[in-house]
Write a structure and sequence with these properties.
The complex is a heterodimer of chains A (about 300) and B (about 500).
Chain A (H helix, E strand, L loop, with lengths): L2 H30 L5 H14 L7 H6 L3 H16 L8 H14 L1 H4 L1 H15 L3 H4 L5 H21 L4 H27 L1 H6 L3 H7 L3 H8 L5 H10 L7 H15 L10 H14 L6 H18 L8
Helix pairs in contact in A: 1-2, 1-4, 1-5, 1-9, 1-10, 1-12, 2-10, 5-7, 7-9, 10-15, 10-17, 15-16, 16-17
Chain B lengths: L26 E3 L2 E2 L4 H9 L2 H17 L3 E6 L2 E6 L7 E4 H25 L4 H4 L5 H5 L21 E9 L2 E8 L6 H14 L1 H6 L8 H10 L10 E4 L8 H11 L2 E3 L4 E4 L2 E6 L2 E4 L2 E4 L3 H4 L15 H6 L4 E3 L16 H9 L6 E2 L3 E2 L3 H9 L4 E5 L8 E3 L5 H13 L4 E5 L5 E6 L2 E6 L5 E4 L3 E3 L4 E5 L13 E9 L5
Classes of the chains: A mainly alpha (about 300), B alpha+beta (about 500).
Chain lengths: ~300, ~500
């Protein structure tokens, strides 16, 4: 397939994964506004921004958050930054726009049904004004966005041929997911206040669709080692790194190494190193795992000629 | 209440402004529908008025969600708009269609012979049937193509000719032989409108158009007869081009790669595309890029959309391309005036479809006539398309006419004039009422190993009341065109 098409499919899936995960996190955070203590809400915002690698605009606004009076007002501002802020490339609307732009590039590869399902989600969010929904169940917006993206994946899942098109999308999806999960874990493990409080793990587990699984496996006490263990090793959970690694390996197999040079083997070599690293990984090694995923991304771009030089 | 045709007249036909100056595609006379329109009118009369409003918004929403948009350029801005589609189709009875079809096949065959001749031996020029300076001086004549062998002599593989009708019958208004667009709108319109009128569609026995992409693919493949299963790719300028939707749609339907210039590279005298697994050769390129931009080495040096060296590969016969470079000389608005003579010269037949009377301002008599009759004429620039740089004298102010006359005097060879045509009308749903609007029809002709026309085409409609310009860039919209059996009801 065309290298440019592979590139666009890969990035389309990455942007969608990011938009979906962020939407779920923001939705969960909004649900806490009426019930959480000011300290919990502030910790939630802090971890959310840190986890998705987004700097909060003014650190003092998070300080203010520990005051009930500012909780909703600042919540609105922070929600807006994460959802619509034009200057924030990680904002959900911008991720969806970038995904749609990439999808437009590959319209002919993904077909009209898949394209129009993404176009609909993009148009729907574009027609939404936060100021209009803020006073009535704003969390519904985030549920809709996340569900819309899941619906998109559902349509792809039931209609796309399992060839290289599909596999490049899956690479993008699981690279992004693994990086987000690692980054969230790093943020949570390094956040003393959150850890002492013990109240942030359930939110992360819910964002990773792993809350119920945790309850079944580990009970109702939330401990760092148990959460990290679950999100790293539990291969049946779609948000665990083990699950992501298996998907990456399977799809790399479908795509196959590039014939031209030895470079094509590199993504596979990095996956093997990730496997080894995960065999004996504590929360202290998480940053290194994150680094390896970034290297994996670079290897994908290099091996499949995403960036055109002289051909 | 039933009228004399036995159909209950829909209430919304009351007050339909039938205007006998124009041929009406649905009504033979006031309140007298043409027989082949009966099924549609019956469906219309069955529909409660409230449904009619929602019908139009359903059609619009479907087009928006599918991203069926085009780009309008004006000043520094470009705006993406949903392509406006009227929810009533235009009906063409099969007997009329067969006439149009024969006329188009004749025309496209003759013009392909003309192109092979002017880039080859030049017999028609030597015989003085078409003035040599007019052809060689045409801005779209490509001397680079002289002596270049073209597979099957198929210069124009895809042609979209604009056909209009007046009380005098059908006429070809212009031929589009470079990179005609609109076929995806035809297919999208068909989907949306068939959904809107399922029963009428069935009982009118509408001829299908959905085979267009597979027929196009077959025509393209036939251009590489020496290769068993040729690799075909569609070259697009990219997502910001106004017809990008169409490029993506056609590539998807034909299951071929949609490529941009940056995806392509010339190696070992072949054109290749860059894939995830190295370079892969291309046999046939369906390019949706003007000649100027396909190869910065051969044509415009500042083009970043094309591929350096592409034309060399083509000239050596290692690549087939549709349409061939240089076909613009056959749809030039001055050469147009000679098409009836071109048909007689090569085929020895009278033209089936008439031309519109055309005055060439490059000739003193034509210039004088044009300037004397500006208020009755439509003046067009020969090198332009899309309704740009034209004057509809009847609708222009005195100052506008004077200003245009200056332009004509400054560069007479750049202009032609034609009488203002009383284009036929078809009823459109405007604000919940039926109103007549002027229409034309752009059928698409495919020419490779054989010549075929998909029954129907893009029916363009001037949605502004009284407007005669149907181009989408000038506020026009579209209708689905149904070729129906004459006795359907």
């Amino acid at each position: 397939m065309l290298a440019r098409v592979a590139d666009s499919l890969y990035w389309m899936a990455r942007y969608l994964e990011r938009a979906e995960f962020t939407a779920r996190l923001v939705g969960l955070q909004i649900q806490r506004l009426p019930v959480g203590t000011a300290v919990e809400v502030a910790a939630g915002w802090r971890l959310l921004f840190a986890g998705i690698g987004n700097d909060p605009p003014e650190s003092e606004s998070l300080g203010n958050m520990e005051d009930d009076d500012f909780l909703f007002v600042d919540g609105y501002t922070l929600t807006d930054i994460l959802t619509f802020e034009e200057g924030n490339p990680a904002a959900i609307a911008n991720c969806l726009a970038a995904a749609r732009e990439n999808a437009r590039e590959v319209r002919s590869a993904i077909g009209p049904g898949i394209w129009s399902s993404l176009n609909r989600e993009y148009l729907a969010l574009g027609q939404t004004r936060l100021v209009e929904i803020w006073k009535r169940e704003p969390e519904l917006l985030y549920r809709d966005v996340a569900e819309g993206i899941q619906r998109f994946h559902g349509i792809c899942d039931s209609s796309m041929r399992r060839g290289t098109d599909w596999s490049f999308m899956q690479l993008g999806r699981y690279v992004e997911r693994a990086q987000l999960v690692v980054s969230m874990l790093v943020a949570h493990c390094g956040d003393a206040a959150g850890r002492e409080n013990g109240g942030e793990w359930p939110v992360l587990l819910r964002a990773c669709n792993a809350f119920e699984a945790y309850g079944r496996e580990c009970g109702t006490v939330f401990e760092e080692s148990a959460v990290v263990g679950l999100l790293l090793y539990e291969g049946d959970l779609p948000y665990s790194l083990r699950f992501c690694l298996e998907r990456l390996r399977g799809n790399l197999d479908v795509i196959g190494p590039t014939p031209s040079d030895g470079l094509g083997k590199r993504p596979l070599a990095i996956l093997n190193r990730l496997d080894e690293q995960l065999h004996d990984c504590g929360s202290g090694d998480l940053r290194q795992v994150g680094e390896l995923f970034r290297t994996f991304h670079d290897a994908i771009e290099g091996s499949y000629a995403f960036r055109v030089s002289d051909g | 209440m039933p009228d004399q045709t036995g159909i209950a007249r829909p209430a919304l036909l009351d007050g339909y402004a039938f205007d006998e100056r124009y041929f009406d595609e649905m009504f033979a006379a006031r309140e007298r529908p043409r027989p082949y329109c009966e099924a549609l009118l019956r469906a219309l009369s069955d529909l409660p008025p409230v449904e009619l409003g929602s019908l139009q918004s359903r059609v619009n929403r479907a087009l928006l969600h599918e991203g069926i948009t085009f780009t309008v350029y004006g000043g520094d801005e470009s705006i993406e708009r949903v392509f406006p589609v009227d929810c009533l189709p235009r009906l063409v009875p099969a007997s009329e269609w067969e006439f149009i079809e024969r006329g188009l096949v004749q025309r496209v065959q003759a013009l392909n012979l003309f192109l092979a001749d002017v880039y080859g031996r030049g017999l028609i020029l030597r015989d003085g049937v078409v003035p040599e300076d007019l052809v060689r001086g045409c801005p779209n004549y490509r001397p680079e193509m002289e002596g270049v062998g073209v597979p099957l002599d198929a210069y124009v593989s895809v042609c979209g000719s604009d056909i209009v009708r007046t009380h005098d019958g059908f006429m070809v208004l212009e031929d589009n032989m470079r990179v005609p667009s609109g076929v995806s709108y035809m297919l999208a319109c068909r989907q949306a409108i068939r959904r809107a009128w399922p029963r009428a569609f069935r009982s009118s026995r509408v001829r299908p158009v959905e085979q267009y992409p597979s027929e196009l693919l077959r025509a393209l493949q036939s251009l590489a007869p020496q290769v068993e299963s040729p690799t075909v790719a569609l070259l697009t300028p990219g997502i910001y081009n106004s017809a990008y939707y169409e490029h993506a749609f056609l590539a998807s339907e034909m299951d071929i790669e949609l490529v941009r210039g940056s995806d392509l590279v010339v190696r070992d005298d072949r054109l290749h595309m860059r894939t995830t697994h190295g370079l892969r050769p291309i046999d046939v390129l369906y390019r949706r890029l003007d000649d100027d931009f396909i190869d910065p080495r051969a044509f415009r040096a500042d083009s970043v959309l094309g591929v350096p060296g592409l034309f060399d590969v083509y000239r050596k016969g290692n690549l087939a391309m549709a349409n061939a470079p240089g076909t613009g000389v056959a749809d030039d608005k001055s050469v147009y005036a000679f098409v009836p003579r071109i048909i007689r010269y090569y085929l020895g037949e009278d033209p089936i479809l008439a031309n519109v009377e055309t005055h060439l301002c490059r000739e003193p008599a034509g210039l004088a006539y044009t300037l004397e009759h500006l208020d009755d004429l439509v003046v067009k620039a020969v090198g332009e398309s899309g309704g740009y740089d034209m004057l509809v004298g009847r609708h222009a102010s005195r100052a506008e006419r004077d200003a245009f006359a200056e332009k004509i005097r400054a560069r007479p060879a750049n202009y032609i004039s034609q009488p203002t045509l009383d284009l036929s009308c078809a009823p459109c749903l405007i604000d919940g009422r039926l109103e007549p609007r002027h229409v034309d029809l752009r059928p698409f002709v495919l020419h490779g190993a054989e010549t075929r026309v998909v029954p129907g085409g893009l029916c363009r409609v001037a949605l502004r009341k009284g407007n005669l310009v149907v181009n989408s860039s000038q506020g026009g919209g579209a209708k689905d065109a149904w070729v129906v059996e004459d006795d359907a009801c």
